[in-house]
Structures are given as structure tokens and as C-alpha cells.
Write a structure and sequence with these properties.
203 residues, alpha+beta, Ubiquitin-like (UB roll), 2 domains, six-stranded antiparallel beta sheet, five-stranded mixed beta sheet
Length: 203
């Protein structure tokens, strides 16, 4: 559970949860104030939490609203005084979508766990090169910024067990070497799969 303060208008679309009481963030409007807040947090290291689709709204300006429906929560937002609103949000960090951030192109997507990273890249136009069919040419390899392991974009997926309190940040091999002096081929493969032997056989 965490607080986030966003200027009005918020730029989110709330909806009732389909199978239980309560209101969640169904979507975030592009270029709205919540989207701009997320850009500051995810791309420019602002010291705050980002908002994720699926977050439950449990408070408005210190007034609790857990279990209320979207009409009641909407009325509380409209009645809130001042130029900004503090949302108290609750996130199930083991389920729901994951924020994927691509560096250095600075593209952001909200993806389902287990989604293909290649589909994510193509959706965002993150300009990842693909130079082979088996995933071992290294042209598409990226490292996860937190754990510093390698993802083959043409083969791997958004981790199903990712802790969604954190964004899933991918750094290109060139950016990794430029910014951290690390050669991506020296990192461990995220899925634990070893490259083929020189004779072409799988290890």
C-alpha cells in the first residue's frame, strides 16, 4: 500500500473490480498527469512510486474508500479540494501486469506476465535488432537492470514471477557497455539456458 500525489485532472480511467467490491485503475490516459508522473518516476528517477494498471484505490486524500464502487470514488475525487489529489493505492505485487521499460530508447509498456518480449518490442517500436533465428547471435540481447542477467528478446518473456512493485527495466548491450562497462555476453542467461556448443549440439 502506498500514496501517490497527482495534479488534477488525474488522467486515469477507474473501474469496479468484476468479481469483488472495490475500484481499480483500469487504464492510464496517454499524456495525462498520471502518465507524466510515471515518466518522471520510471525514466527520470523521481523519488516516488509509479501507478500500475490494476492498482486498487483505497483512499482519497486520507479518506478511506476501500470496497466502494466507482460512482462513490468518482464523487470523492470530484469533491476533493486543491490542485492535486493523493491516492492511496494497493498493489498485488505477485499478480497482474508488469511495467516494462526499455533503455536507452525510453519506451514504456504495461505487459502481462509471460508475454513475449519480442511482441512488447514490436508494439513499442523499441528498435531492437534481430540477427538470427535461434537466439544466440546476441544482436537482440538486453540485460535486466536489477539482476543483471541476459534476456534474449527474440525468445524470452516478461518474467511470470516478477515483483511488480518494481519496473522491469531492460538495457541494450551497447548501453550496458557504455554506461556500466559490462559485456553482456559475460552475464548469466535469465532462463538458465546454455548456448549451443561449437559443434552445434545443445549442452
Amino acid at each position: 500500500m502506498f500514496d501517490v500525489t497527482i495534479p488534477k485532472p488525474l488522467g486515469v480511467i477507474p473501474k469496479n473490480f468484476p468479481k469483488r467490491p472495490g475500484v481499480g485503475i483500469a487504464s492510464i490516459k496517454p499524456d495525462g498527469n498520471t502518465s507524466l508522473h510515471n515518466d518522471q518516476v520510471l525514466l527520470k528517477d523521481k523519488n516516488a512510486m509509479f501507478i500500475l494498471e490494476g492498482d486498487e484505490v483505497v483512499g482519497i486524500n486520507e479518506e478511506m474508500c476501500e470496497g466502494k464502487d466507482v460512482e462513490e470514488v468518482g464523487a470523492m475525487v470530484k469533491a476533493a479540494e486543491g490542485d492535486s489529489i493523493t491516492l492511496k493505492l494497493c498493489r498485488n505485487y505477485q499478480q497482474g501486469p508488469v511495467k516494462v521499460v526499455w533503455k536507452p530508447t525510453l519506451k514504456i509498456a504495461t505487459m502481462k506476465r509471460g508475454s513475449s518480449l519480442r511482441v512488447c518490442e514490436e508494439f513499442l517500436g523499441a528498435n531492437v535488432r534481430f540477427g538470427c533465428e535461434d537466439g544466440w547471435c546476441s544482436s537482440c540481447w538486453h540485460a535486466n537492470e536489477l539482476y543483471m542477467n541476459t534476456y534474449r528478446i527474440c525468445k524470452n518473456v516478461v518474467p511470470p514471477t516478477w515483483d511488480s512493485v518494481l519496473p522491469f527495466i531492460l538495457i541494450s548491450a551497447a548501453e550496458l557497455r557504455r554506461s556500466k562497462g559490462v559485456v553482456i555476453k559475460n552475464l548469466v542467461q535469465a532462463d538458465g539456458v546454455l548456448p549451443p556448443r561449437e559443434d552445434g549440439k545443445i549442452r
